Amino acid sequence: MADPLALVRALIADQPAADGSLGVTEAYLHRLSTAAAQALQLWGAAISVLTGSGSLDLLIASDDASKEIAELQVTLGEGPSRDAYESRRPVLEPDLGSGTAGRRWPGFAPAARALSVEADFALPLQVGAARLGVLDLYRAAPGSLSPGLLVLALTFAYDAVATLLGANEHLDGSVPDGFERASADLSMQYQAQGMVMVQLGVGVGEATARLRAHAYAVDRRLADVAGDVVARRLRLDRDEPQSMHRVVR
Amino acid sequence: MSDAPLAPIGHRLMRNGIGPDRAIEIVVLRFRRALENLEQSKGMLVEWLRCTPDEAFESLVAESQRTNRKLRDIASAHVRNGSRAHLRDEGSVG
What we know:
The complex is a heterodimer. Chain A has 10 helices and 7 strands.
């Protein structure tokens, strides 16, 4: 592998065009995640980025199942991607079924395994000490990444950073929009936060916590719960436990 | 939050002794926060005005033109003031 970056970019270029509704940066990152999934023999891959409040949120995933795993980490507030983000170091967990993984992420490890993910390699996306997000690589079989695949994985992460910073010359000189336009799911989550703020008379922090708690309590994706709030199919109640909710028709 | 371009903000931070890494983080965080506030503020208006997110956005733009204030300033004021009902009355934001 003479030039891993050239190889990674060729692999990304080979991927089919992404959903037309995505922005340029997101479309490129989506192809990056599907290319990484193929090249590294993964179950799937996901990219999370930091939000205005300094927490991590899913930006793009190779497929819906990976999206679900990444959101699980957001909903539960634990997992390799969060640890990689906070420690600014790769968190390579070759066996989510091990005792150490179970103790480290008591909520995430069993939940990920229930969805057939046995290993999670979380690579921080950063420039120096500046943190932009995390690339999560999920595998269906336990086991470490071989040194060759790890180099490739880090190269995918490098290219993701370059893309997020708008420095990727493969984007045809278009305006980089990774941070200008939240993906549709994220926009909806923020709108839902605003609606819940008004509905419950609370601040943005509590509104966010209530949405997450509800998603966790009813075992649904945060993005789906947010979508229901925005579509007025769901209204969180002021004083009820999170699992008690009214369905508005 | 001003509408000054973000890169100059980064340079200003660095002139004030903030390291380049932290400056990039701050610039990105500010940008993200402005976008999030815009969407959150749309959600708040959707509830108050019983309108769609697109109509909420139009109403934010109208408020910006009427009061000659920047969109992101109005949005962040909405979110900062949280759930206060008086936001609903015209012009009393902030």
